[in-house]
Amino acid sequence: MNDPFTISALFHAMRPPTRLRADHSALPQPPRVQGAGSLTSAFPVTAFATASIGRAALALAGYVGARFGHQPMVSVDRRLASFWFGTSLRAEGWQVPDVRDPVTGDYRTRDGWIRLHTNAPHHQAAALSALNVGADHEKVAQAIADWQANDLEEAIIQAGGCAAMMRSPQEWAQHPQGKSVKAEPLFHFEEGPPGSVGGNLATAERPLAGIKVLDMTRVWAGPVSTRFLAGYGAQVLRIDPPFWTEPGMVPEVTLGKRCAMLDFREAQQLEQARVLLAQADVFVHGYRSDVLDRLGLGAQARQTIRPGLIDVCLDAYGWTGPWNRRRGFDSLVQMSNGIAWAGMQHFGADKPTPLPVQALDQASGYLMAAAALQGLTQRLHSATGSIYRLSLARTGELLVSQSHEETGTPDDHGSQEKLEPETPADYAPETEHTDWGPAKRLKPPCKVEGVPMKWDYPASALRSSLAQWETPRH
């Protein structure tokens, strides 16, 4: 099954302006799709997974072609793509911790539903301060039952927390932020100043060897993008503050990376971030623009520090409109933009029904990787840097667009072939010796001819390495 509508949408959405392309030829053909089965969802999530992973693989193939003169063929396995959109790691003799706090979840309000996202301590404190209750699920539910959903959403946001009321697709379409997101491109693109090309250790088999990727992302989307880049030889250095923790995510997403710590509240450590940035080829981050501006690391400052930088950034709710600096996560965006409502209607459920996996995060991650690779390819031709901006909400807009326009409800995908449970045959043969114990990974979800996806490091704990680039190994 080729899922042509979603593949085509993603395939053409990243096409750079004609004046920035090395030639005016047509884009290569979409990847060959293999495998069978679909995740059960109100929306075509497996098609979305296949297309976004395929788009990243195509971008890699384009980079290989530009660097070595031969563009390899690409294929994607829709079954493995479905699994990778969940998790790829299978622990052996240990368990990845489930660290969701007792407050995160969906709650009934007086007039609908709201979701609180309180896994981070400061987000939990903000929500509880707005509700004036302690961290007890039942007490939180009782307090929320007396609120109007919109009023509580605004109160928590104003307190510095993260929450989203459930809206229908029609309500989101009429909302000022929904209108802004729909008008945005999937990728905001700006050309940067010229600079050095980098990647002088590249080979046809490890095409990203020598490319330095500075990763300042959290949770899913950004870490997924840099995990993909690391799989083809990029040197990825992830930076976290001393207080950040996400134990349920780290074993999944730090594969192939070195993880270090910098405290930007300390002037010397902030300066070290500038040193690292000056030597980077790619900077991937999820900070709100106002945060980096306050640190002296705004968009123009970054291009001055490292001319030729490929700058890829993600936010939750888009780069225009009244919510352009609002905090958010995949599950909150699904509440805001009608996905959770549509799932509830589709399955006849009595509560919000989101996608079966964090598909907005995952798809955005692969699209961020594709953006980085497209930027690297363009830099080979023009020696110029580039800035790409994406958002979870705009990624969601692409998925939601595959619905009946007249009703705002999704097409029926129940007739698609069922995704059979995974088996040991789906795992790569090697054992990964993570910092927590041995594990298996799923086989790669895509293949780029002659360019194996493999990682130089197993998954490692946050802050386990020094905040410095490695000395190149020849």
State the helix count.
17
Radius of gyration: 22 Å
Structure summary, number of beta strands: 18
Query: Strand content of the residues, in percent?
Result: 15-25%
CATH architecture of the largest domain: 3-Layer(aba) Sandwich
CATH H level of the largest domain: which superfamily? Crotonobetainyl-coa:carnitine coa-transferase, domain 1
Sheet/helix structural class: alpha/beta
Distance, first to last CA: 43 Å
Number of domains: 2
General description of the model:
- The chain is an alpha/beta fold.
- It folds into two domains: 4-97 and 185-319 and 355-448, Crotonobetainyl-coa:carnitine coa-transferase, domain 1 (Rossmann fold, 3-Layer(aba) Sandwich); 114-165, no CATH class.
- 36% of the residues lie in helices and 16% in strands.
- It is built from 17 helices and 18 strands.
- The strands form five sheets. The protein has a seven-stranded mixed β-sheet, with helices on both faces.
- Helix 2 links the parallel strand 1 (32-34) and strand 2.
- It is globular.
- It starts with a helix and ends in a 26-residue tail after the last strand.
